[in-house]
Design a protein that fits this description.
The complex is a heterodimer of chains A (393) and B (158). Helix content of chain A is 12%, strand content 45%. By secondary structure, chain A is mainly beta. Chain A folds into 2 domains: 40 residues, no CATH class; 330 residues, Neuraminidase (6 Propeller). In chain A, strands 4, 5, 6, 7 and 8 form a 5-stranded antiparallel sheet that branches. In chain A, a hairpin with a 2-residue loop joins strand 4 and strand 5. Helix content of chain B is 54%, strand content 8%. Chain B has a 3-stranded mixed sheet. In chain B, helix 4 packs across helix 6 and helix 6 runs antiparallel to helix 7. Chain B starts with a helix and ends in an 11-residue tail after the last helix. Classes of the chains: A mainly beta (393), B mainly alpha (158). At the A-B interface, helix 1, helix 2 and helix 3 of A face helix 6, helix 7, helix 8 and helix 9 of B.
């Protein structure tokens, strides 16, 4: 590490053994101990070691919209919380915890290694400008704005719209924001690396239609994945109902800057679905496809990213809620977290303002908790407490 | 200690194999080979040299007291209650020795225990625990405190 001495009786490698196991909040306080300790939390070797030791799959970043005052102004809330507490009592955990508030214009593109990517935008008549910030909720450090990227509306046909995603390339150890930009008959992939001052055009490929309300990309194993329509399908142009048979996954490799197409689970029931309905996310490091149809809610997990045969049905829930949609956007059920032993799954039923705790062992609903109807659009991302810096050191 | 079947049947016929270790304060200690094998630094030497186990293996960085504690910890299969009887100095000495002897399980166990001990502790507690001299000016320290006020809430008493 730096030239300043650690001034302790213990050698540095032994201190690293201890401190890589100390929670982030305590390490931020220990910055006051001495100059060596102040530099420690931004030392790349230590940050990496601490991340390796941080317990995985014990926390999520919960995001939701909430009304903040009598004027019904909405804000975006972000709340890192322990899976154990959330499964134990979701209403109390959401109520009591200190969440971070943002203006509603921000969109959470994703979370990698405890680093959150937030996107802000200016939407004009002819074009829109977009820029991102990186934020570490554990250290409460936020980056400056990235350079802007300008996207021209005239390039989009029908319901197609640009798509953003955030991912981590573990081979080059870099954090990347990716945008899929539709240009007439082609699709351009443009990438902004954390710390760079540009957006690079990395790939031009065939158009891959993605639902308009898709939340973001699912980042697994150094790839970004979006659920959309197979090339053979023409459903999106007619804006008509499609069946799940038309679905495919577009997978962009962050290191090699190439794309491939992955299949959805074979056993997915061939119901007609609204364009917006199935969702692709990441849970416990696995691709997760959730799908609501005819009073049923199915969740599939792809156990091994590289093995298309590893899809399995993780849960099936008959929820009995009527399906409804607002402005054509389906309000559906979101998976929030899975307990350590996979026995319990917490879901947010956005239409009935309730959390559903599902018992996988007995295949039944364990409990329902109402949440304030002032809150809505609950979503979650895998989260880990880390010291990862939101800017280049 | 867990023993494999082979070791157990051997133990019936002959005495448990021991290795003599020489500590920094000049004490010769006979230690069961199953415990010595957790010490990578000693194990690799024995395996390479097929050494005569009666010649003491020198451990110039480990005192007899620390070695006693290590042997008890391994024999007790890393018992939390036993470890809780250690003083802060003993914890640090065992950690340094575990690192030197390259005992991976013990290192993880002790490092985790000390890390748990440091949670919610004040800056002053940390300086005392590690004998650290504060090399900040009062102004510098106040500045760092000010930018991170939220981390100074809900602390334990020292």
């Amino acid at each position: 590490m730096s030239s300043s001495q650690n001034c302790s009786v213990l050698p540095q490698d032994v201190l690293f053994e201890i401190l890589s196991r100390v929670p982030v909040k305590d390490l931020m306080r220990f910055k006051c101990v001495s100059k060596w300790w102040n530099h420690l939390v931004s030392d790349p070797t230590f940050v990496k070691l601490h991340l390796q030791r941080s317990s995985k799959n014990t926390h999520i970043l919960l995001t939701f919209q909430g009304i903040i005052n009598q004027k019904f102004e909405l804000r975006l809330y972000a709340l890192p919380c322990s899976v154990q507490k959330l499964v134990g009592n979701p209403s109390a955990t959401v109520k009591s915890s200190r969440s971070h508030r943002f203006k509603l214009d921000y969109a959470v593109l994703g979370v990698c290694n405890g680093l959150v990517s937030l996107k802000d935008s200016y939407i004009g008549d002819e074009f829109s400008d977009h820029w991102v910030r990186f934020w570490n909720p554990s250290t409460r450090i936020m980056s400056e704005d990235s350079p802007r990227i300008r996207l021209h509306h005239g390039d989009y046909k029908g319901p197609l719209l640009y798509k953003f995603g955030f991912g981590y390339d573990d081979r080059s150890e870099s954090y990347k924001v990716v945008v899929l930009d539709y240009k007439s008959e082609k699709m351009e992939v443009r990438v902004h690396c954390l710390g760079d001052n540009c957006w690079r055009n990395t790939l031009t490929c065939d158009v891959f239609p993605i639902p308009a309300v898709c939340r973001g990309a699912a980042c697994v194993s150094g790839t970004m994945n979006w659920l959309g329509l197979a090339k053979s399908s023409s459903g999106y142009q007619k804006q008509e109902l499609i069946t799940v048979k038309d679905l495919e996954i577009f997978s962009y490799d962050l290191k090699n800057e190439t794309c491939s197409y992955l299949s959805v689970p074979d056993g997915l029931s061939v119901a007609e679905v609204h364009f917006a309905q199935p969702a692709l996310e990441v849970f416990k490091g696995c691709l997760c496809l959730s799908h609501q149809h005819e009073g049923q809610f199915d969740v599939w997990l792809r156990r091994e990213f590289s093995d298309e045969k590893s899809w399995f049905k993780f849960l099936n829930l008959s929820h009995g809620s009527p399906e409804f949609s607002i402005c054509g956007f389906s309000i559906y059920i979101a998976v929030l977290c899975v307990s350590e032993n996979d026995d319990f799954v917490l879901l947010a039923n956005q239409s009935d303002s309730e959390f559903i705790l599902f018992n996988r062992t007995d295949n039944r609903i364990e409990r329902r908790y109402n949440f304030k109807s002032a809150n809505s659009y609950f979503y979650s991302n895998d989260y880990v407490e880390s010291l990862v810096l939101p800017y280049r050191n | 200690m867990q023993k494999t079947e082979g070791e157990e049947s051997k133990a019936e016929n002959e005495e448990v194999k021991q290795v003599t270790l020489m500590t920094s304060d000049g004490v010769k200690m006979k230690v069961e080979i199953s415990i010595v094998y957790e010490m990578e630094i000693v194990r690799s030497f024995i395996e390479v040299n097929d050494a005569d186990h009666s010649v003491p293996f020198p451990l110039p960085n480990v005192s007899s007291h620390t070695l006693d504690l290590i042997i008890e910890l391994v024999k007790n299969e890393y018992d939390d209650e036993f470890m809780k009887t250690f003083s802060h100095d003993e914890l640090k000495e065992v950690l340094v020795a575990a690192n030197y002897l390259n005992m991976k399980t013990l290192l993880d166990f002790i490092a985790t225990a000390i890390a748990n001990l440091l949670e919610k502790k004040s800056v002053e507690f940390i300086r005392n625990f590690f004998n650290i001299v504060n090399d900040f000016t009062p102004e510098e320290e106040a500045e760092i405190r000010k930018t991170n006020e939220w981390v100074f809430q809900d602390l334990d008493e020292d």
